[in-house]
Automatic annotation (TrEMBL):
Pfam family, one: FemAB_like
Name of the protein described by the UniProt record: N-acetyltransferase
InterPro entries cross-referenced by the UniProt entry: Acyl_CoA_acyltransferase, FemAB-like
Segments traversing the membrane: none
């Protein structure tokens, strides 16, 4: 009688080392976890050793069958993560210690909650967590971090001894609205009036919009969007994380998951926003403009996307990281999570104490925000559970 062999661990240097079918069987339907999305980041050079995102994906195999996986990167900085640990890195440096490299499980440049421990059982998920910690120790990394895991993965990570950090995002919920006016009717008078004023200002400026999906997005549209995206980063004196090659690959590989909203004025395109979506969720991602117009950002990034969600029956619109200004436009606060393991015992203890205080502050902050929702008291959507996939 043959004794079952334990799963074998392999560290992959990139998504090219695993077939799309094998990876996607574990990743499910979320577009950001798909082989196509992660491979596009790597193949375009946006994710590489040169950009400070060295792929080190952990995989478990039973013979030639992939049974579990963890997207994982060795990082020599903290850019593009949206869970800020710069103060931790500074504290290490001031004490003569190196915080980088660190190991990070995340979707690069994408603060979207979802599965990270891609496995069928908690036993396999726990094996992945321990393998990640062992990998961090083997390469001399200061720490292992898992960003925006869903509720099930968060529980496994916490049970494995990682510290949980809380954050806040703003999400919009579709309660079966018949149209945008029906949605506005659920809001308080002042907030409804403000949104109508913003939309009217855009309309009176002669700005119109195209909602492009799938193969309706042409090569010229991708080039225009990338120019807008680059311009906005430069205006903020930042370097763009993504490039035209990535966006073109994304459009080619995931045409059924891409929504591009293009704003035009006087016969010329002036701004664009790019979103990803599936049957249940629209993810607000990237935006840029070549011209300024009052309320253009809100219309392009929020109101047009809300109209798309209502028309398609999409339940949830994740508006991306940060942004209290989203509250007045119908996005409600939702708690997010990240998990952290630090090799240095004293720093781990100090961070744990800090996170306990920070979590209390986050809970208080969410409570205060929920006291000032833009909705009528009798019609306040319940945001609970909207960030808990995984």
């Amino acid at each position: 009688m043959n004794t079952p062999q334990p799963p074998q661990l392999r560290v992959l240097a990139g998504m090219h080392e695993v077939t799309p079918a094998a990876w996607n069987r574990l990743a499910g339907n979320q577009p950001f976890l798909s082989h196509a999305f992660l491979h596009a980041l790597e193949a375009s050079g946006c994710v590489s050793d040169e950009t400070g995102w060295l792929p080190q994906h952990l995989t478990l195999w039973e013979g030639e069958h992939l049974v579990a996986a963890l997207p994982l990167y060795a990082k020599n900085h903290s850019y593009g993560e949206y869970v800020f640990d710069w103060a931790w890195a500074d504290a290490y440096q001031r004490n003569g210690l190196a915080y980088y490299p660190k190991l990070l499980s995340a979707i690069p440049f994408t603060p979207v909650t979802g599965p990270r421990l891609l496995a069928k059982s908690d036993t396999q998920r726990t094996l992945l967590v321990h393998a990640a910690i062992e990998q961090a120790q083997a390469v001399g990394a200061s720490s292992f971090h898992c960003l925006f895991p869903g509720a099930a993965d968060s529980a496994v990570l916490q049970d494995a001894g990682l510290m949980i950090r809380r954050g806040v995002q703003f999400h919009w919920l579709n309660h079966g609205f018949a149209g945008f006016d029906d949605y506005l009717a659920a809001m308080s008078h002042d907030k409804r009036k403000k949104i109508k004023q913003e939309r009217r200002r855009v309309s009176e400026a002669g700005i119109s919009f195209r909602q492009l999906t799938g193969n309706d997005i042409r090569a010229a549209d991708w080039a225009f969007f990338t120019g807008c995206y680059d311009n906005t980063y430069r205006q903020h004196r930042s370097t763009p994380y993504l490039n035209l090659d990535f966006f073109q690959r994304l459009g080619h590989a995931l045409p059924d998951n891409v929504l591009m909203i293009v704003a035009s004025q006087g016969g010329h395109d002036i701004a664009a926003a790019l979103n990803l979506y599936d049957n249940t969720t629209l993810y607000g991602r990237y935006w840029g403009a070549h011209a300024y117009s009052p309320a253009l950002h809100f219309e392009t990034c929020y109101y047009q996307a809300i109209e798309f969600c209502i028309a398609r029956g999409i339940r949830l619109f994740e508006g991306g990281a940060q942004g209290e200004h989203k509250l007045a436009r119908g996005f409600l606060p939702v708690a997010t999570a990240s998990a952290h393991w630090l090799a240095h015992p004293r720093f781990a203890q100090a961070v744990e104490t800090f996170l306990e205080r920070e979590s209390l502050g986050v809970a208080h902050y969410i409570g205060e925000l929920n006291e000032h929702t833009p909705f009528k008291n009798t019609c306040v959507p319940d945001p609970s559970g909207s960030a808990g996939g995984g």
